Amino acid sequence: MNNINSIGYEISFQNSLNQLISFIDNSSYTKFFILTDEITTVHCLPALEVRLVGRTYDLIEVSAGEECKNLDFCIGVWKMLIDFNADRKSLLINLGGGVVTDMGGFIASTYKRGIDFVNVPTTLLSQVDASVGGKTGVDLDSIKNIIGTFTQPKAVFIAHEYLSTLPERQILSGLAEMLKHGLIKDQAYWNDLKNSDLSLPSAELVYRSVEIKNEVVIADPHEKGIRKALNFGHTVGHAVETFSLDNDKRSLTHGEAIAIGMVCESWLSCKKSGLSQNELDEIVGVLMRLYPKYNLQLERADEIITLMRKDKKNEGNKINCTLLVSIGNCLIDQICSEDELRESLEFYAGL
Amino acid sequence: MNNINSIGYEISFQNSLNQLISFIDNSSYTKFFILTDEITTVHCLPALEVRLVGRTYDLIEVSAGEECKNLDFCIGVWKMLIDFNADRKSLLINLGGGVVTDMGGFIASTYKRGIDFVNVPTTLLSQVDASVGGKTGVDLDSIKNIIGTFTQPKAVFIAHEYLSTLPERQILSGLAEMLKHGLIKDQAYWNDLKNSDLSLPSAELVYRSVEIKNEVVIADPHEKGIRKALNFGHTVGHAVETFSLDNDKRSLTHGEAIAIGMVCESWLSCKKSGLSQNELDEIVGVLMRLYPKYNLQLERADEIITLMRKDKKNEGNKINCTLLVSIGNCLIDQICSEDELRESLEFYAGL
Ligand SMILES: NC(=O)c1ccc[n+]([C@@H]2O[C@H](COP(=O)([O-])OP(=O)(O)OC[C@H]3O[C@@H](n4cnc5c(N)ncnc54)[C@H](O)[C@@H]3O)[C@@H](O)[C@H]2O)c1
Ligand SMILES: NC(=O)c1ccc[n+]([C@@H]2O[C@H](COP(=O)([O-])OP(=O)(O)OC[C@H]3O[C@@H](n4cnc5c(N)ncnc54)[C@H](O)[C@@H]3O)[C@@H](O)[C@H]2O)c1
Ligand SMILES: [Zn+2]
Ligand SMILES: [Zn+2]
């Protein structure tokens, strides 16, 4: 597993924590800051700390969870950076899941108009997805990632060992993106996944997922075109995720929501873009076996559709989806009507 | 006065408001938003409104003044953009002084990871300075511009007519940067300024100032080197400005603070970088004639120096200044000790 070259930086997979230490030792940063959440401080910082012995850094910890991915927490971290006299040649090391890497990336990209940062993604989701693409951001008023920048990290260090402490539900959350990578671009990979033990996907499966995402991102860094392929499952999924965050005591993970989105958008694909009934059945079978059924409140479907309309990927009043032609092939910019989207929610609810 | 080419965009000076309308009419944006403050709504919006007849746009107004250049106001504007369903192909038109153009630029550069914006600077300061360079940002905890991005506008429209309603104190504020442009790069321009009626600098003088700033910025867009020339007067000036914002009922304008900073840093130049006593006297004479004397509280000089240390332009613990070699020539990255900086404040206080 060689390092993967992304946009101006490398993603390492082997001995990654040692590679991070080399990166630090060979750099000329004036100060180092590590951003964690309260859980990665416990589970992930120790493996880094033993390697950092003798080096000086400051730790900044935020609370864990999507509820904390907001501007209030950014302000807290910015103030700590100010208090620690972080200058323009400081490095921020984001150690955590997608919340920490997205928010830390945004914080770094706007502190003093931009300081360098590296990501050490510690969840499956952040390893296979947030690790590539340069998207940083935070939520506002429960609209996900509505405030952010496109800024590449200076490096990404993926350590498979971190996944060993990850709860099953978080593994499943990342797995949804891996399945998506197969569905949109690589039928063989989809088959590999289908036939693997997915309670802890192997390092090789993680690697292939990052490769696929990286190919798509490099072809279209600013999401003007083909990169929208990665939105498969996300038009419906994001809206369901936001709805769940606002309404459920125990809200859906990103991957659980995307799995629902992929069921709905596969149904739309079958209706609109040529996905065969057989392939639809196969996709729905795999997803419904892996993910618990969510109680979609159909009487509130309008609220979910309103959330889709506010999605930042839309232009004007159209609702845009990426749909499948077959497993491994997709089409971007497929306009779906509100009725079609409502029907797709009904399809899911009726399963 | 031809348009000036800056980094990927043009700055217009002639019939600028009509040029803005052409820009709008020839574009393919889905929505237009105009950001004003309560004063530019009164003084500057009407001239635009008459030209906008028949076109659709939404107005977003913030309160006026540096106290409003903060994240709370950003959040307010971001929420309005969300409510107005602003999508990624929306255009934000910032109509106001440096507060509106800096904050509006930051808001646009981070909303949905970046939408386009154009600036219509309506103060002298924003015309000769904030119009070039791609710096966006807001203050946090009274640290100026500590949060922001480097993002270029799509165009800048400079209308000299807007200066007619500007209070004298605001004219003087912009004038300080024009004098700075002469001091660091163009002795002839300094002499022109010295011999002009400066109660309302002519369009030609404004134009030359933008030209000088643009040359410096193009040579070094990310402030890695020569662009630091523009920091002349700003190491001391920014700190005095922040101190005044925190302590004075009627706080200094940016230009008044920079004028103080230029006196102090000219004194440092005479001491350290070869500025002659004659030229020091000339500079001090012009600045003290134009700007009211500020009552620097020397017993609190330490607080001002602490603010200099927190300045985002510093690296590590060094305090960096741009100093003059002669009128029209400068040197960047001149390290000054805290004692030297304190003495320069004493020099000003003793004038
Ligand atoms: N930038 C991108 O391209 C991109 C892509 C996908 C998702 N995201 C974002 O990522 C976020 C979701 O990512 P996530 O699921 O990693 O969220 P997360 O960061 O909230 O992590 C999930 C939970 O796992 C905990 N955790 C992290 N590492 C652990 C470990 N090694 N062992 C045990 N527990 C651990 C965290 O503390 C948290 O409680 C969302 O905000 C989403 O918007 C961004
Ligand atoms: N981005 C840059 O490169 C850059 C450069 C210099 C200054 N700045 C920033 O600009 C700000 C200062 O700029 P400023 O002095 O323009 O501040 P400002 O925007 O606060 O304007 C000063 C006052 O003049 C009013 N005003 C604006 N246009 C007017 C008009 N035509 N007639 C009457 N009143 C008018 C405003 O409402 C305000 O009350 C600071 O925040 C500074 O950090 C940025
Ligand atoms: Zn996703
Ligand atoms: Zn200035």
UniProtKB/TrEMBL annotation, chains A, B:
It is an enzyme of class 4 (lyase). Residues 60-171 form the 3-dehydroquinate synthase N-terminal domain. GO terms for molecular function: 3-dehydroquinate synthase activity; metal ion binding; nucleotide binding. PANTHER family: 3-DEHYDROQUINATE SYNTHASE. It comes from the Bacteria. InterPro entries: Dehydroquinate_synthase, DHQ_synth_AroB, DHQ_synth_fam, DHQS/DOIS_N, DHQS_C. Residues 174-314 form the 3-dehydroquinate synthase C-terminal domain. GO terms for biological process: aromatic amino acid family biosynthetic process; chorismate biosynthetic process. This is 3-dehydroquinate synthase. One of its GO terms (cellular component) is cytoplasm. Coiled coil: none annotated. Its EC number is 4.2.3.4. It holds the Pfam family DHQ_synthase. Keywords: Cobalt, Lyase, Metal-binding, NAD, Nucleotide-binding, Zinc. NCBIfam families: aroB (TIGR01357). Its cofactor is NAD(+); Co(2+); Zn(2+). Catalyzes the conversion of 3-deoxy-D-arabino-heptulosonate 7-phosphate (DAHP) to dehydroquinate (DHQ).
